[in-house]
Structure formats: C-alpha cells, structure tokens
Design goal:
This protein is an all-alpha fold. It has a domain of 83 residues. Helix content is 63%, strand content 0%. The chain has 8 helices and no strands. Helix 3 packs parallel to helix 6 and helix 5 packs across helix 6. About 8% of the residues have low confidence.
Length: 154
C-alpha cells in the first residue's frame, strides 16, 4: 500500500523539461544533498526570522522544487510506517519544518497575550501568516424561514 502511495507522489512531483526551463533550474544549481546541518539551518530561518519556505530556500540556496520533493518524501516516510529507512532524513526534515512553523506561530501568539503596545502588529502578522486560524470569520447569513402562504386567504 505504501509503495503505491509513494509511486503516485513520485509521479506527481517528477519534473518535466518545461519545469526545468520555467524555474531556470540547471544541473549546477539542481537539488543539493539534504543533511542534518541543512535541516537545522532551514528550521532556524523559519522559526527565528519567520521566513516563508520560498524565502528560506532562496537564502540557503535550495531550489524550491527540491524543498517540495523533500517535504513529500518526508510525509510519505512519516505516514508510511517509517519505510524505506533511507528516507529517514526526509522524515526529520518534514518534522523540523512543521515544528519550526509552529514555533514561529506560537511565539507570536504568546506575544499577543502580553500587555505590550505591539500586540496589534503581532496579530496582523499572524493574520497574514495563517488567515484560517487568526483571520476574521465571516458570519453566517441570517436564517430565512421558508413558508407556504395559506391559499384560502389569497
């Protein structure tokens, strides 16, 4: 079952020649090797500075396509009972990214609760970063009653 899932994801993320031209990916700046040091640097960029994944990739010299390949492989590794073992580093990368994004959001949410003059700024950052959780919710439309007029009065 996990092999079918992995094959489907690999098929979905396989690059075509057009993708290489559009993203200006060359063999010189093609995906580099994922290491524990790179995982730590990536997580630090996200958690400390609040970088988006794309900005962190640009800063560290990682292609954005590689980032998503690593995330997909990590997600397959985590959800697929830690198989195959060679993908363990991608699982660590996936977990580190999730932990870093959560740490960044947690830091700003705790700053909102402190009595400071800047809580509105922190809330605005959270709303931009995660609008589903922190944004304004639209009120449901008023419930309208459906009724049938009494035909004897018409």
């Amino acid at each position: 079952m996990a092999k079918k899932k992995q094959a489907a994801v690999e098929k979905r993320i396989r690059l075509t020649d057009e993708d290489w031209r559009r993203n200006k990916i060359t063999r010189d700046n093609a995906p580099q090797v994922l290491t524990d040091k790179l995982i730590q640097q990536f997580a630090d960029e996200i958690e400390e500075w609040g970088c988006s994944a794309r900005l962190a990739c640009d800063f560290l010299g990682i292609s954005y396509v590689s980032f998503w390949k690593w995330v997909n492989r990590g997600q397959i590794y985590i959800e697929g009972d830690q198989e195959p073992v060679r993908d363990a580093i991608y699982g660590r990368f996936y977990q580190a990214c999730r932990r870093a994004f959560a740490g960044y959001i947690r830091r700003f949410s705790s700053q909102i609760q402190m009595p400071t003059d800047y809580w509105r700024r922190d809330l605005a950052i959270l709303v931009r970063r995660d609008p589903e959780t922190w944004g304004k919710t639209q009120q449901q439309d008023a419930i309208t009653e459906q009724y049938e007029p009494n035909k004897s009065f018409l």
